[in-house]
Amino acid sequence: MLSSLLLLALLLAGCSIMETNYIPTVDLGDAGEYWNIGWQGQSTGLYHTLRTFINDYSRNHDYVFGESDCNDMVVEIWDNLNNQGILSLIVVGNLEMSRESFEECNHAWLMVYNAEGAAVALDPSCGGVYCWEDARKHPYLEQYWEGIVYKNPTDLWNDFQERW
Q1: Is the pLDDT at 87 greater than 90, yes or no?
Q2: C-beta separation of 124 from 74 below 8 A
Q3: pLDDT at 31
Q4: Rounded mean pLDDT, 126-150
Q5: How confident is the model at residue 65 (pLDDT cuts 50, 70, 90)?
Q6: What is the pTM of this model?
Q7: If DSSP states are collapsed to H, E and C, what string results for 10-57?
Q8: Phi, psi for 104 (deg, rounded to 5)
């Protein structure tokens, strides 16, 4: 009995119990909860709306490396899309590595799913709008489909506050 308690104490001592606010990939599944069902049969229209929005946003917001914050840009875009009834997910990650930890993340972008479940990545820092077909042609874009996913800015900020 004492050895079991000692083992349990050692295991717990080595564990860092920290609540996370992101959506575990296993729970995200096909992201069906975040599909923009209101755009059923209008995938091209949604894509055009997103591209126009990002182009306009990029014209009015300069990203300056080391001075601008892509997290702030993503939150602003998330809020604007949300106000238009367009669902999006915030993703943080590192476009230069796979399976990054939260501490290794250095960039943020958005994922928007159409009514059929196809995703588009929106990168406010460069004005990029990338679909999976783009990633198949340019494999470095596949990194946009990997990262730590948040359903809203509050959850992202809570994780920032808990870790720093």
Answers
A1: yes
A2: yes
A3: 82
A4: 91
A5: low
A6: 0.81
A7: HHHHHCCCCCCCCECHHHHCCCHHHECHHHCCCHHHHHHHHHHHHHHH
A8: -90, -5
Alpha-carbon span 153 to 164, nearest angstrom: 16
* 94/108 Cα distance (integer angstroms): 8
Both tokens of 63, joined, read 């990203």
Cβ-based neighbours of 23, under 8 Å, separated by 6 or more: 89, 149, 150, 151
Domain spans in the chain, listed from the N-terminal domain onward: 21-163
